[in-house]
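RECORD TYPE: inverse folding
INPUT: structure tokens
STRUCTURE:
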């Protein structure tokens, strides 16, 4: 999902992009947090390492002061990453 339908994503009228990922075993991925944005991470299933912290099923985190997330060491993990604007910035969608 995205606010602009980028890469054939579902177009929604919010300033947000939602990514999903599956990690099991040796898969690794880096997510660069765009400038003036923050992310909310939710682990729906399994567990994995994000940077140097272990997240388990049901865990979530609002992340504002990182520029990059490294996902690794997944065990049957399903995650959602919400790329959002901080509330204090101006944007036409309200």
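DESIGNED SEQUENCE:
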């Amino acid at each position: 999902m995205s606010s602009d339908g980028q890469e054939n994503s579902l177009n929604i009228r919010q300033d947000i992009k939602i990514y999903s990922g599956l990690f099991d075993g040796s898969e690794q991925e880096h997510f660069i947090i765009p400038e003036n944005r923050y992310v909310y991470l939710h682990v729906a299933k399994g567990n994995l390492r994000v940077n140097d912290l272990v997240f388990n099923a049901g865990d979530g985190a609002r992340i504002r002061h990182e520029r990059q997330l490294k996902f690794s060491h997944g065990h049957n993990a399903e995650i959602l990453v919400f790329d959002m604007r901080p509330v204090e910035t101006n944007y036409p969608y309200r």
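NOTES: The beta strands are 16-25, 29-32, 38-50, 53-56, 60-63, 68-84.
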